[in-house]
Amino acid sequence: MTHGQTHDSTRHAAPDFYDAMQQGFHWSVPTHFNMAEVCSRRWAAQTDAQARVAIVTHHAEGPAHTHSYAELQHAANSLSHVLQGLGVARGDRVAIVLPQRFETAVAYMAVLQMGAVAMPLSLLFGPEALEYRLQDSEAVVAIVDDASVGNLLAVRAQCPALREVIGIDLSNASDMLHVDVDYTSALAAQQRHFEAVHTKAEEGAVLIYTSGTTGPPKGALIPHRALIGNLTGFVCSQNWFGFPTHREAALAPHALPTGSDAVFWSPADWAWTGGLMDALLPSLYFGRPIVAWNGRFSPELAFTLMQHHGVTHTFLFPTALKAMMKAYPEPSHQFKLQLQAIMSAGEAVGDAVFGYCQTQLGVTVNEMFGQTEINYIVGNCAMEWAPTLGTDVSSLPPEGAQTALGRPGGGLGNFRVNVGWPAKPGSMGKGYPGHRVAVIDEEGRECPVGVPGDVALNRYNQHGQPDPIFFLGYWKNDKSTVGKFTGDWCRTGDLAVRDEDGYLWYQGRADDVFKAAGYRIGPSEIENCLVKHAAVANAAVVPKPDAERGALVKAYVVLAPGFEASDALVAELQTHVRGKLAPYEYPKEIEFTPELPMTTTGKVQRRVLRLQEEERAKAK
């Protein structure tokens, strides 16, 4: 199959509004804009703020706990006063090392409305990963809970800029003694209104560190306006997010986006771009509830949670969907779902999962592509899900106005009226409205149909308007920022080909970064960690093809003199990496080798090892 172009073409007869959507879309970015204002403050100012649910905390046992927009804003105001009292000023970085929980949303809103910069850090980060990011960002305050306090306190002495640590629900007496502020008591003492900072749309809002191929991770500074740039992709990939699609339903200028009954959930960590920009913030922007789950993912948990809370829209990694498909081939026998949209990203969904979502989950999955620096730029908007009233679309209420029952196997309703375009299984999709996306060559010229090139986003859309999705640059790294661009084109480093219909088909990374189980893996950080072990003289990390996860992290290791290869040493090195970095970064397989392929200038040729792994996989 060449780039998916021999897929069944019967869906091409379905309505395709892509060209009209792209040409008819214009950006409207105000001079002043603040993420917290649109995600919390404006909803808290409405008469229904006490009843409008913002966060639903799911518990494996016992009833869920709901938090209103009024409660969210009230807590954010209090925390902003606490942070202000600790000396946090406009532009300062505040580390948020928390899982999916209500207080995490509060922390983001509190930091953002102050004009400070939120720096999310995953609970998966070990001490070494935390130390680098805290030092590089010069974060002045960190907010932690029981799960993250230990690793943070272990490196605090090496982070001189970190003045204060705020602890939430700490259970260990020693941890309580070593943090500076107790969250609950501090907020209780600050029960008053907070006057939000009138930030410019161009100001930095979020600093997210992203892995690279050479050197340490880079901090991508995301401006407040990026949320605006994010919205077209979010709405399209979520099949209009429960809003009517007929033209007379269009919002008046400055009107609140009401009229949706969407309930969102994703297992994506709110510390990552996927969890923050693709789930938490857009859900709150539209004044809808998002379910928070602080625990391990499992297929049973996913189905149970979605059924219990009536989840209508979700973002699920292909790895998660594969696990769900294997565990519950016919989920309708056990669960009653109400899904209207599934967005998936991180790797290709594949034909089997694509078909499973259609026939068993009652939704045509919308694949999406983006990266931290320029998020949510490519994808699909299939507008297909299981209708409420049987399978005869002609008997339905106005398009997009009904709630789905998610009747697997009952036939998909096509709600593609005025909006949407057909999805091709395995394709990345097309550039979302407002984003001028192309496949370009080394000189920045657009590649012909079928010719591989670098997926790139232009600074300006087709109407010549600046695209608000762009990051401001890499933190304290102007060289890498400049290197990201060829003229007005921002390169993603991902290779693709464009077919005759304008759909993009992923071809792999242009550099050595790869994805394993949906996580972006930068080999340099893992290699540096391995080399710190006394037994390792040199190391190279590459992806090993894997049917389940897309790829596994594999390390080639050159041993230092005096050490011998053994299973025990493999386990020791794996534990070494797992303890210092994130669990998903440790090498699942280690191969000892007398030498690594090197260039004449002394650089490791990871590409040689990557191709070797691909050939081995083909030979099996």
Summarize the structure in short.
This protein has 620 residues and is an alpha/beta fold. It is built from 17 helices and 29 strands. The chain folds into three domains: 10-26 and 224-427, 3-Layer(aba) Sandwich (Rossmann fold); 35-199, 3-Layer(aba) Sandwich (Rossmann fold), CATH 3.40.50; 514-619, ANL, C-terminal domain (GMP Synthetase, Chain A, domain 3).
Compute the separation of the termini in Å: 20 Å
The SS-based structural class is: alpha/beta
Give the low-pLDDT segments.
1-12, 388-410
Shape: globular
The count of domains is: 3
| CATH level-1 class of the largest domain | Alpha Beta
Could you tell me the mean pLDDT? Answer: 90
Name the beta content range.
Answer: 15-25%
Can you describe what's shown?
The structure is a single chain. The chain is an alpha/beta fold. It has 3 domains: 10-26 and 224-427, Rossmann fold (3-Layer(aba) Sandwich), CATH 3.40.50; 35-199, Rossmann fold (3-Layer(aba) Sandwich), CATH 3.40.50.12780; 514-619, 2-Layer Sandwich (GMP Synthetase, Chain A, domain 3). Helices cover 28% and strands 22% of the residues. It is built from 17 helices and 29 strands. The strands form 8 sheets. A 6-stranded mixed sheet has the order 10-12-13-14-15-18, with helices on one face. β13, α13 (351-359) and β14 (366-371) form a beta-alpha-beta unit. α5 crosses α6 and α9 packs across α10 (273-285).
